[in-house]
Automatic annotation (TrEMBL), chain A:
GO cellular component: membrane
Taxonomy, superkingdom: Bacteria
Subcellular localization: Membrane
Region entry Disordered, spans: 572-592
Iron-sulfur as UniProt keyword: no
Lineage: Bacteria, Pseudomonadati, Pseudomonadota, Alphaproteobacteria, Hyphomicrobiales
Name of this protein: Cytochrome C oxidase
Cytochrome oxidase subunit I profile domain residues: 23-559
Membrane-topology annotation of the record: Multi-pass membrane protein
Keyword Iron-sulfur in record: no
UniProtKB/TrEMBL annotation, chain B:
Gene3D superfamilies noted in UniProt: Cytochrome c oxidase, subunit III, four-helix bundle (1.20.120.80)
Name of protein: Cytochrome bo(3) ubiquinol oxidase subunit 3
Transmembrane segment boundaries: 41-64, 84-111, 123-142, 162-194, 215-239
Topology relative to the membrane: Multi-pass membrane protein
Top-level taxonomy: Bacteria, Pseudomonadati, Pseudomonadota, Alphaproteobacteria, Hyphomicrobiales
One Pfam family of this chain: COX3
GO cellular component: plasma membrane
UniProt GO MF annotations: cytochrome-c oxidase activity
Domain Heme-copper oxidase subunit III family profile residues, every copy: 43-240
Entry keyword set: Cell membrane, Membrane, Transmembrane, Transmembrane helix
PANTHER family, A to Z: CYTOCHROME BO(3) UBIQUINOL OXIDASE SUBUNIT 3, CYTOCHROME C OXIDASE SUBUNIT III
Amino acid sequence: MVDVPYDRIADVPPAEVPEVELYHPKSWWTQYVFSQDAKVIAIQYSLTATAIGLVALVLSWLMRLQLGFPGTFSFIDANQYLQFITMHGMIMVIYLLTALFLGGFGNYLIPLMVGARDMVFPYVNMLSYWVYLLAVLVLASTFFVPGGPTGAGWTLYPPQAILSGTPGQDWGIILMLSSLILFIIGFTMGGLNYVVTVLQARTRGMTLMRMPLTVWGIFTATVMALLAFPALFVASVMMLFDRVLGTSFFMPALVEMGQQMKYGGGSPILFQHLFWFFGHPEVYIVALPAFGIVSDLISTHARKNIFGYRMMVWAIVAIGALSFIVWAHHMYVSGMHPHFGFFFATTTLIIAIPTAIKVYNWVLTLWRGDIHLTVPMLFALGFIITFVNGGLTGLFLGNVVVDVPLSDTMFVVAHFHMVMGVAPIMVVLGAIYHWYPKVTGRMLDDWMGKFHFWVTFLGAYLIFFPMHYIGLLGVPRRYHEIGEAAFIPSSTHTLNAFITVMALMVGFAQMVFLFNLVWSYFKGRPSGGNPWRATTLEWQTPETPPGHGNWGKELPVVYRWAYDYSVPGAEQDFIPQNQPPRPTRAVQEAAP
Amino acid sequence: MAETALTNPEKSPAQSAGWKGIAADWSSDQRAFKNVSWGKAMMWIFLLSDTFIFSCFLLSYMTARMSTTVPWPNPSEVFALEIAGHHIPLILIAIMTFVLISSSGTMAMAVNFGYRRDRVKTAVLMLVTAALGATFVGMQAFEWTKLIMEGVRPWENPWGAAQFGSSFFMITGFHGTHVTFGVIFLVAIARKVWRGDFDHGRRGFFTSRKGNYEIVEIMGLYWHFVDLVWVFIFAFFYLW
């Protein structure tokens, strides 16, 4: 046997892709405002999403005030209540969560985590943000137009969405649909960038199966969004025509105020199919990045490799594919053929398999891990518990016979707020605590962070657990005031008041968090480059925050997967992805 | 940067054929699609997304057509023209289709000459393609005008289901917008080719990047896609 000297650089294939050619800013404007740097675009996306998200948060307080103390607040009437639920839902799902996960975290983390200098087409990436901002401004403008924003509910079901009985019929619905169309155009420009960057611009040694799960989650979600948003785009265009031109795509023959309307022959169910062909993948567009991020948080803060990495990747891909064939489980009460209900209930329950694989793997990652109860870890644990809770009530709603009586009750509200509201927001918050040091170079304050976590986590349960119960009693959703009905016990009103107080307290905790973000930016403890001792590439940048072009002169070379924590025999309890393997013993002995 | 698509010659033997090759490419580092540049990958993925948009439009139209209780106007009659005393069904649509398919031919030739770095022929063929595209849009404008004169509106028409006009204007309008954007970009890129931007490595105004002749092929992908979509619209809207 001849000992071949082991050359660790030669072990990695040579570079075959040229580096991203960067746009070098020439002025303050092109550096900070019309920036083509993915990191700046990410921060712009995040700040815009947070700003419009705060509007939605305030709307939720107003709704809760009305539900908890009906009749006390004279400035909230029934129409406004409907407008609040519509805007709250639409903003939170699309303009906050989708934009934050994909535009915010995607832009910041993808190039850093795969070892690229930037997205592949930075100029298109910049346009993506500005179109998104325009969409947000158009949406926000509906608060100031005559008639106010639309009150059609976030699902915008026709025919009521564009009839005069619904608030916001004048301008609200038109601007809402236009804003959605703009959002989709903007997102497509960004989404194409994320997908191509992951597929075609990774650094040397970074195979797909070495990517951190965060990138896998964001990547799969982006692919799904590129295929799901077209349905919403088409539905928005057609409804806009129904409203503006008087076409009848979705409008059947109707009598309004004793008058036969000009509409006729359209299909409201068609809209529901189009909407949910987008709407159900949208749930996973929000959830998959959360799945990915939480895997990395758990692995890093439990100092243990993720359990079953390959399974985790395939589960993400499987969930993404399956989510395209379950949409009609939102439509059990729409009058579909019952056989469809059977099919869609089956596919819905099949999704539980890859999802359960993920949950078991998170728990098995924690098992006998060196768990550090840092703030990001607390939020990650909070996510797992909340997601399991929300997922279990999903089993109720996924089955036709159980769903029918629960349809349109507060049970549904509680279910999707747990699984799609609280759970992803937990991950967003955990991820901000985790990556804030990389973005700013300073740690977020720990005490405020723990206060924020406990109030948010416990508060969310105190809000939504009673809401399940109220829903089981049969209290319908989207009602401005439930009044006195024989089937509603008077204790429901007390519970509603309790939920409102809790919602206000959780809202207050978010103000502490915002204060923490600002305060720590100036006064936080300097973090250094890798405060969590993490393995992934973004923590190995030469500068913190990463400079223009992310890496110094040389791109990093990747030698290992992203989860080398607590490797036996290693000097430290983590080995960065770009650390070369040690020469084998034979090579060491051969050396003079 | 210019030669994004260059292969590394030492890597070539590893590129085996069939499923093994695909598996090898996807488990390799750096790129999943070897020899595919970023721009081309991005255009393909965009076209996939756009396919979903047109599919949703066409499926919605078919749903409306199948579920309407009022008879659907007969497209052969609606789109017939009187030429020299002869009543010819679908004649204008046939000519439009011929023009658009021909433009795919000139586009393919432009791509060919682009790779031979034949500046003038590439630019001229792209301009011919753009002219054919503009002709198509012009004939579509004529068709729209004719139907509007006959009383077809998005919300009603003299012959039957109101969804006929709605679907017609929406689908052909959306496709026509695609063709129009294609014409604009064809002219813009033809200008760059003509000026020799891709020979001298002139940098883009917004992106500060050097382009290369591959952009002609990427433009071609878009153009062929728009033509292909028209074939489906032709089959599902006019021939059904």
